Amino acid sequence: MNILLPKNVKYIIEKLQDAGFDAYAVGGCVRDVLLGKEPNDWDITTDASPYEVKPLFRRTIDTGIKHGTVTVMLNDENGNYTGYEVTTYRIDGEYEDSRHPKEVTYTKDLKEDLRRRDFTINAMAYNDKAGLVDIFDGRGDLKRHTIKAVGDPHERFSEDALRILRAYRFAAQLGFDIEDETAEAASRLRDTLSRISAERIQTEFTKLICSPHPEILYDMYLAGITEAIMPEFDECMRMDQKNKHHLYNVGEHTIKAMMVNAIYSNIEFDADTLRYIRYALLFHDFGKPEAMTEDENGARHFKGHAIVSEHIAKDIMRRLKLDNDTINMVCLLVKWHDYRPEATKKNVRRAMNRVGKDAYRLLFPIRIADTLAQSMYRRQEKLAYEREIMRLYSEIIEEGDPVSLKDLAVTGSDLIEHGYEPGPAIGDKLKELLEIVLEDPLCNTKETLLSKI
């Protein structure tokens, strides 16, 4: 078969071939092309050493020269420099920390280089002369929708424990199944994930929950993998709700809500927004085990669970080393996910003031997914409420109603001009004026507000 290589990738391969070396596009880029997707990155493997690669190109960066990798910098179609990783065929020595090989040995054998890779679908190589090199039947596993380790899965996961999470991440992104022996080895070696840094785990886990198939979490739970990286989730899986609003336990409801968001959302979210929403859905009920009470009829209630969930979410996200923007936004969404004011413009304006104009909008897909993951009890009524709240929100935005201090027609400087001393009293008075315009947006004129003071 033929693959249309990008101009710069073709140039690097041919430059190496002209110098007497072998070179191939390798790994994820080949996999993506075979799946009909546009690769994000193109990696190249060669039998040339880094010190033989570097003189062939005008600009290179020693990004991982210890492990045989240099980055070749070339101009793209827009005149911007783009980097292409070029890595020497290698055989990894013994792994001592479930991540790094003790030593790396260069080889002239492409097969030996492909043998060390994680999964068959990532162990294919291509150039125009040799065509597709697929020693481990990665193309067949793509057709079978299967994630399968290259060779012995126990060895592959022992070399780098993060591959355990990568297996489930690829399954979630591609909608594939994990081959039985590979899944068994992943479960058996799950405790080795404790040796992996929080940052690396978080990177894979974020990709997993933001994928089209976040329901893979259920398989991870059965395999004991969530217990190794997020035991709070397993606690939710053990918490039956016993409430007429629900038909799943807390963990199953969480998974269902994330599935609903993945399947039914008709809004195109950017990467940041999708990350906020999926993490908020993951954490929104984590506080239920702690907040649970049971009445005399055996029905369970979870009053105040949103606040408890917020605290748990913050602890987990800090543990996973998520960025502060994500932590702050997700905590805000978790805190307010169960807040449902009466469906009037006045109340929606106040809600927008409390939550934030932009953040409040993100609560809609969260609450809809939450509702659709519950029982049928009053479902249509709940969905009708959400539609009405969304309608009122849209009108408020279109009409430009004030919902925050920055929307007020007066400023602190205006109050100082009218005799207020600089200090806390100005802030208090602005808040009073904001209450007036939240009640009646028509009052938001400088003349009207100054007359109020």
Outline of the structure:
The protein has helices at 7-18, 28-34, 50-53, 110-115, 138-143, 153-159, 162-174, 180-188, 198-209, 216-222, 225-229, 231-237, 250-264, 271-283, 288-291, 305-319, 324-336, 345-355, 357-372, 379-399, 412-417, 424-439, 446-451; strands spanning 23-26, 43-46, 60-64, 69-75, 81-88, 90-92, 104-106, 125-127, 131-133, 146-147, 177-178, 293-294, 300-301. With 453 residues, the protein is an alpha+beta fold. A hairpin with a 5-residue loop joins β12 (293-294) and β13.
Judged by helices, strands and strand pairing, the structural class is alpha+beta
- Strand residues, percent: 5-15%
**Span between termini:** 78 Å
Strands, count: 13
Across the major sheet, the strand order is 3-4-5-2-1-8-9
Unreliable stretches (pLDDT < 50, length at least 5) are none
How many helical elements? 23
Overall residue-averaged pLDDT value: 95
Shape: globular
Q: In which range does the helix fraction lie?
A: 40-55%
Radius of gyration: 28 Å
Largest sheet: 7 strands, mixed
List the helices and strands and how they pair.
Elements: H1 7-18, E1 23-26, H2 28-34, E2 43-46, H3 50-53, E3 60-64, E4 69-75, E5 81-88, E6 90-92, E7 104-106, H4 110-115, E8 125-127, E9 131-133, H5 138-143, E10 146-147, H6 153-159, H7 162-174, E11 177-178, H8 180-188, H9 198-209, H10 216-222, H11 225-229, H12 231-237, H13 250-264, H14 271-283, H15 288-291, E12 293-294, E13 300-301, H16 305-319, H17 324-336, H18 345-355, H19 357-372, H20 379-399, H21 412-417, H22 424-439, H23 446-451
Parallel strand pairs: 2-5, 10-11
Antiparallel strand pairs: 1-2, 1-8, 3-4, 4-5, 6-7, 8-9, 12-13
